[in-house]
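Recall that a protein's primary structure is simply its ordered list of amino acids. Everything else, from secondary elements to tertiary packing, is in principle encoded there. The following example makes that idea concrete.
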Amino acid sequence: MEQPSTPNLPKAFADALVPSAPPSTYYIPKFLTPPEEEHLLHKINSVPLPTWRHLSHRRLQAHPSPLTTSNTLLAAPLPSWLQHPIISRLSSVPLNDDSPQEHLFAKSPHHSPNHCLINEYTPGQGIHPHEDGSAYHPVVATVSLGSPIVLDVYRKPNAGEPLDKKPAWRICQEPGSLLISMGDMYTECLHGIAEVEVDDNLHSGEGGVVNWDMLGSEWRTGFEDQGGSWRRGTRMSLTFRDVLRVKTLGKGLGFLGGKR
C-alpha cells in the first residue's frame, strides 16, 4: 500500500491532537516516508543477534543500552540511524503556534529523547496493559513500522479495583506514523496490545478507533475493503523517551569502581 514520498508534518503538534482520546494524545499518520521506513527496518534487522532480547511473547532491542536495575541509563549517544530523521523531526515541530521554540522534549531534563526501545510484534503477539512509569520524563513518542496495529487504552483503576476488560479507547497505528502520549494519556491511563492475529472494528464511531478520521485515506480504504478488519503482519514499534537518571560510565556506579 503506497504512501506519499514526503512526510506530512503539522505546523504544530496541537494540530495533531486526537479529539476523542485522553487529553494530550497526538497522532501524525505520515511522519516517515516509505523509504525512511524501509531504511529503519533494514537497520533494525541488521543488528547483531545478541542485540535482541527475547521475552516470552516478543523480542526487543534497547538503544543505546537497557536501563540498570535502578532505572538508570549509562550515558551514550543513540545510533545515528535513530537520531535522524526521527529525533531531528520531533524537535522541528513546536507544541503550538504560540510557542515556536517549545518542542515536545523542551522541558525534559536532557531536552531530547536519550533512549529508544524497539519492540517486534509478529501476528498474535501483544503486551499486557501497562504504564511507562516514573523512570522517564512523561512524554512518549512512538513510531510504527511494518504493519498496522491497534493500541488499546484503559483508564487506570483505583487501588484495589480491577482493570476494565474492555478498553476505553482504541488507537490504530499505521506504518510510518507517530503517536505522542503525554499529560493524562501518560499519567492516568494504561495501554496494551491484544494478542490477536486480526484487528477488527476498524471504523469510526462507537467501538471503532478514535483516530479513524486521521488515518491515511489508503489505510481507511484498505480496512473498509476488508470489512473493517486487518490481518496483522510484523510490526515494529520504536518508543523514544528521556530517561531521567543518567550516569557517565565509571561515575556514580559502585560496581564499576566509580565514586559514590
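The CA atoms of residues 70 and 229 lie 42 Å apart. Helices lie at 34-46, 80-92, 183-187, 217-225.
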